[in-house]
Automatic annotation (TrEMBL):
Name recorded for this polypeptide: Nucleotide exchange factor GrpE
Region (Disordered), start-end ranges: 1-42
Length: 42
């Protein structure tokens, strides 16, 4: 179970890094994404 957890954690971190790279190349989109996320959690 621990190995599976580590794998999932690593995958999540990798996905986050990919998302950040995408947002860096499109900062206007990043602002839009933040707003959308906030709306989702409200």
């Amino acid at each position: 179970m621990t190995e599976k957890y580590e794998e999932l954690k690593n995958n999540a971190e990798e996905a986050k890094e990919q998302e950040e790279k995408k947002q860096d190349s499109n900062s206007e989109g990043q602002e839009q994404t933040k707003e959308d996320v906030q709306k989702t959690f409200e």
